[in-house]
Write a structure and sequence with these properties.
Strand order of the largest sheet: 2-3-4-5-1-6-7-9-8
Radius of gyration: 18 Å
Shape: globular
Largest sheet: 9 strands, antiparallel
Helix content: 25-40%
Structural class: alpha+beta
Distance between the termini: 26 Å
Number of strands: 9
Protein backbone atom coordinates (compact mmCIF):
# COMPACT_ATOMS: atom_id res chain seq x y z
CA UNK A 1 0.00 0.00 0.00
CA UNK A 2 1.28 3.45 -0.91
CA UNK A 3 1.83 5.84 2.00
CA UNK A 4 1.21 9.57 1.72
CA UNK A 5 2.15 12.78 3.51
CA UNK A 6 0.89 16.35 3.04
CA UNK A 7 3.48 19.05 3.66
CA UNK A 8 3.25 22.85 3.59
CA UNK A 9 6.26 25.18 3.80
CA UNK A 10 6.30 28.81 4.97
CA UNK A 11 8.82 31.57 5.31
CA UNK A 12 9.22 32.27 9.04
CA UNK A 13 6.81 35.01 10.16
CA UNK A 14 8.44 35.37 13.59
CA UNK A 15 5.14 34.55 15.23
CA UNK A 16 3.20 31.36 15.95
CA UNK A 17 0.94 31.45 12.86
CA UNK A 18 -1.97 30.56 15.13
CA UNK A 19 -4.74 31.21 12.59
CA UNK A 20 -2.98 28.95 10.08
CA UNK A 21 -2.62 26.16 12.65
CA UNK A 22 -6.32 26.32 13.48
CA UNK A 23 -7.31 26.30 9.81
CA UNK A 24 -4.99 23.40 9.00
CA UNK A 25 -6.30 21.21 11.82
CA UNK A 26 -9.92 22.10 11.05
CA UNK A 27 -9.67 21.32 7.33
CA UNK A 28 -7.74 18.07 7.85
CA UNK A 29 -10.23 16.99 10.52
CA UNK A 30 -13.06 17.58 8.06
CA UNK A 31 -11.19 15.95 5.18
CA UNK A 32 -10.59 12.66 7.01
CA UNK A 33 -13.84 12.69 8.99
CA UNK A 34 -12.10 12.77 12.37
CA UNK A 35 -13.65 13.19 15.78
CA UNK A 36 -10.78 15.47 16.78
CA UNK A 37 -7.12 15.67 17.80
CA UNK A 38 -5.23 14.78 20.97
CA UNK A 39 -1.85 16.06 22.16
CA UNK A 40 1.19 14.29 23.60
CA UNK A 41 -0.51 14.20 27.01
CA UNK A 42 -3.52 12.41 25.50
CA UNK A 43 -5.65 15.53 26.04
CA UNK A 44 -8.29 16.55 23.52
CA UNK A 45 -7.15 19.59 21.51
CA UNK A 46 -9.58 22.52 21.62
CA UNK A 47 -9.37 24.40 18.31
CA UNK A 48 -10.32 27.79 19.73
CA UNK A 49 -7.66 30.30 18.72
CA UNK A 50 -6.62 31.39 22.22
CA UNK A 51 -6.23 27.79 23.40
CA UNK A 52 -4.16 26.82 20.36
CA UNK A 53 -1.86 29.79 21.02
CA UNK A 54 -1.54 28.75 24.67
CA UNK A 55 -0.70 25.18 23.63
CA UNK A 56 2.01 26.38 21.24
CA UNK A 57 3.55 28.77 23.76
CA UNK A 58 3.66 26.04 26.38
CA UNK A 59 6.14 24.06 24.27
CA UNK A 60 9.11 26.40 24.87
CA UNK A 61 10.29 29.52 26.67
CA UNK A 62 9.66 32.93 25.10
CA UNK A 63 13.33 33.31 24.13
CA UNK A 64 13.46 29.87 22.55
CA UNK A 65 10.23 30.54 20.65
CA UNK A 66 11.80 33.63 19.08
CA UNK A 67 15.11 31.97 18.28
CA UNK A 68 14.36 28.30 17.59
CA UNK A 69 10.61 28.19 17.14
CA UNK A 70 8.47 25.33 18.36
CA UNK A 71 7.46 21.88 17.15
CA UNK A 72 4.07 20.68 18.31
CA UNK A 73 2.76 17.18 17.53
CA UNK A 74 -0.86 16.07 17.69
CA UNK A 75 -2.59 12.90 16.55
CA UNK A 76 -6.10 11.91 15.57
CA UNK A 77 -8.47 10.67 18.24
CA UNK A 78 -9.07 7.54 16.18
CA UNK A 79 -6.28 5.01 16.69
CA UNK A 80 -7.31 3.01 13.62
CA UNK A 81 -5.95 4.80 10.54
CA UNK A 82 -3.99 7.08 12.86
CA UNK A 83 -3.03 10.53 11.54
CA UNK A 84 -0.11 12.54 12.91
CA UNK A 85 0.42 16.29 12.51
CA UNK A 86 3.67 18.13 13.21
CA UNK A 87 3.44 21.92 13.43
CA UNK A 88 6.73 23.85 13.17
CA UNK A 89 6.31 27.60 13.70
CA UNK A 90 8.10 30.69 14.99
CA UNK A 91 11.85 31.12 15.29
CA UNK A 92 14.32 33.44 13.59
CA UNK A 93 15.04 33.86 9.88
CA UNK A 94 16.88 30.51 9.75
CA UNK A 95 13.85 28.54 10.92
CA UNK A 96 11.63 27.27 8.16
CA UNK A 97 8.03 26.94 9.27
CA UNK A 98 5.95 23.97 8.15
CA UNK A 99 2.76 21.99 8.68
CA UNK A 100 3.13 18.26 8.09
CA UNK A 101 0.39 15.64 7.99
CA UNK A 102 1.47 11.99 8.14
CA UNK A 103 -1.31 9.99 6.49
CA UNK A 104 0.83 6.89 5.97
CA UNK A 105 -1.53 4.71 8.02
CA UNK A 106 -4.62 5.72 6.04
CA UNK A 107 -5.69 3.47 3.18
CA UNK A 108 -7.51 6.11 1.15
CA UNK A 109 -6.85 9.83 0.68
CA UNK A 110 -9.80 12.24 0.80
CA UNK A 111 -10.83 14.40 -2.15
CA UNK A 112 -8.11 16.80 -3.30
CA UNK A 113 -10.48 19.74 -2.81
CA UNK A 114 -9.65 19.67 0.91
CA UNK A 115 -5.93 20.08 0.23
CA UNK A 116 -6.68 22.89 -2.24
CA UNK A 117 -8.82 24.57 0.42
CA UNK A 118 -5.99 24.34 2.94
CA UNK A 119 -3.49 25.88 0.53
CA UNK A 120 -5.87 28.72 -0.38
CA UNK A 121 -6.57 29.61 3.24
CA UNK A 122 -3.02 29.33 4.62
CA UNK A 123 -0.93 30.45 1.59
CA UNK A 124 2.35 28.48 1.85
CA UNK A 125 5.15 29.15 -0.61
CA UNK A 126 5.19 25.42 -1.41
CA UNK A 127 2.90 22.50 -0.59
CA UNK A 128 2.73 18.91 -1.79
CA UNK A 129 1.41 15.41 -1.24
CA UNK A 130 4.32 13.00 -1.44
CA UNK A 131 4.35 9.24 -1.70
CA UNK A 132 6.70 7.86 0.95
CA UNK A 133 8.59 5.28 -1.11
CA UNK A 134 9.01 7.70 -4.00
CA UNK A 135 10.30 10.42 -1.66
CA UNK A 136 12.85 8.02 -0.15
CA UNK A 137 14.09 7.10 -3.62
CA UNK A 138 14.37 10.76 -4.64
CA UNK A 139 16.28 11.60 -1.44
CA UNK A 140 18.74 8.76 -2.04
CA UNK A 141 19.27 9.90 -5.61
CA UNK A 142 19.92 13.49 -4.51
CA UNK A 143 22.47 12.32 -1.95
CA UNK A 144 24.33 10.38 -4.61
CA UNK A 145 24.35 13.44 -6.86
CA UNK A 146 25.07 15.84 -3.94
CA UNK A 147 22.14 17.91 -5.23
CA UNK A 148 20.98 20.86 -3.13
CA UNK A 149 18.02 23.22 -3.29
CA UNK A 150 18.37 26.27 -5.49
CA UNK A 151 17.53 29.45 -3.59
CA UNK A 152 15.19 27.55 -1.28
CA UNK A 153 13.26 26.18 -4.24
CA UNK A 154 11.81 22.69 -4.69
CA UNK A 155 14.05 19.62 -4.83
CA UNK A 156 11.52 17.44 -6.61
CA UNK A 157 8.05 17.46 -8.11
CA UNK A 158 5.61 15.34 -6.16
CA UNK A 159 2.22 13.94 -7.20
CA UNK A 160 0.15 16.93 -6.06
CA UNK A 161 2.41 19.98 -5.84
CA UNK A 162 1.78 23.70 -5.36
CA UNK A 163 4.33 26.49 -5.81
CA UNK A 164 3.66 30.18 -5.35
CA UNK A 165 5.01 32.57 -7.98
CA UNK A 166 8.30 33.18 -6.16
CA UNK A 167 8.97 29.44 -5.93
CA UNK A 168 7.86 28.82 -9.52
CA UNK A 169 10.37 31.43 -10.69
CA UNK A 170 13.18 29.23 -9.35
CA UNK A 171 12.19 26.49 -11.83
CA UNK A 172 11.59 28.68 -14.89
CA UNK A 173 8.61 30.89 -14.05
CA UNK A 174 4.85 30.49 -14.22
CA UNK A 175 4.60 30.24 -18.01
CA UNK A 176 7.26 27.55 -18.14
CA UNK A 177 5.61 25.65 -15.27
CA UNK A 178 2.24 25.70 -17.02
CA UNK A 179 3.82 23.86 -19.98
CA UNK A 180 4.99 20.98 -17.77
CA UNK A 181 4.00 17.55 -19.14
CA UNK A 182 1.61 16.19 -16.50
CA UNK A 183 -1.98 15.09 -16.05
CA UNK A 184 -2.99 18.60 -14.96
CA UNK A 185 -1.19 21.91 -14.46
CA UNK A 186 -3.14 25.08 -13.62
CA UNK A 187 -2.85 28.59 -12.24
CA UNK A 188 -3.93 28.36 -8.64
CA UNK A 189 -3.92 30.66 -5.63
CA UNK A 190 -0.72 32.74 -5.88
CA UNK A 191 1.11 30.42 -8.27
CA UNK A 192 0.75 27.08 -10.01
CA UNK A 193 -0.61 23.65 -9.07
CA UNK A 194 0.65 20.40 -10.58
CA UNK A 195 -1.00 16.98 -10.55
CA UNK A 196 1.29 14.41 -12.13
CA UNK A 197 -1.23 11.57 -12.55
CA UNK A 198 -5.01 11.24 -12.36
CA UNK A 199 -4.79 8.65 -9.57
CA UNK A 200 -2.57 8.89 -6.47
CA UNK A 201 1.12 8.37 -7.27
CA UNK A 202 2.44 4.82 -6.89
CA UNK A 203 6.22 4.42 -6.82
CA UNK A 204 5.81 0.83 -8.06
CA UNK A 205 4.07 2.01 -11.23
CA UNK A 206 6.63 2.52 -14.05
CA UNK A 207 4.25 4.86 -15.88
CA UNK A 208 3.99 7.10 -12.83
CA UNK A 209 7.77 7.14 -12.50
CA UNK A 210 8.05 8.08 -16.17
CA UNK A 211 5.57 10.94 -15.79
CA UNK A 212 7.47 12.32 -12.80
CA UNK A 213 10.81 12.05 -14.56
CA UNK A 214 9.55 13.92 -17.65
CA UNK A 215 8.06 16.70 -15.53
CA UNK A 216 11.18 17.08 -13.40
CA UNK A 217 13.40 17.25 -16.48
CA UNK A 218 11.18 20.04 -17.84
CA UNK A 219 11.60 22.00 -14.59
CA UNK A 220 15.33 21.36 -14.33
CA UNK A 221 14.92 19.23 -11.24
CA UNK A 222 16.38 16.05 -12.76
Amino acid sequence: MSKYHFHQRFHPPHDLRVDGVVQFLEVMQQAFGLLGWIDADEQLVDLRRDLIERALRSQASTSDLKRFGVNWVVKSVEMKNLLLVCIGVGGDEWCENSFHLDASRVSLLPDLSFFRQSIESIRPFEAFILEEKNDDELREKRQQQTQTSRNGGPLALHWFHYMNEETANVVGGLSHCLQTPAFKVERFCEGVLFQLTAEPFDARNPQHQKMQNRAMIHLGLE
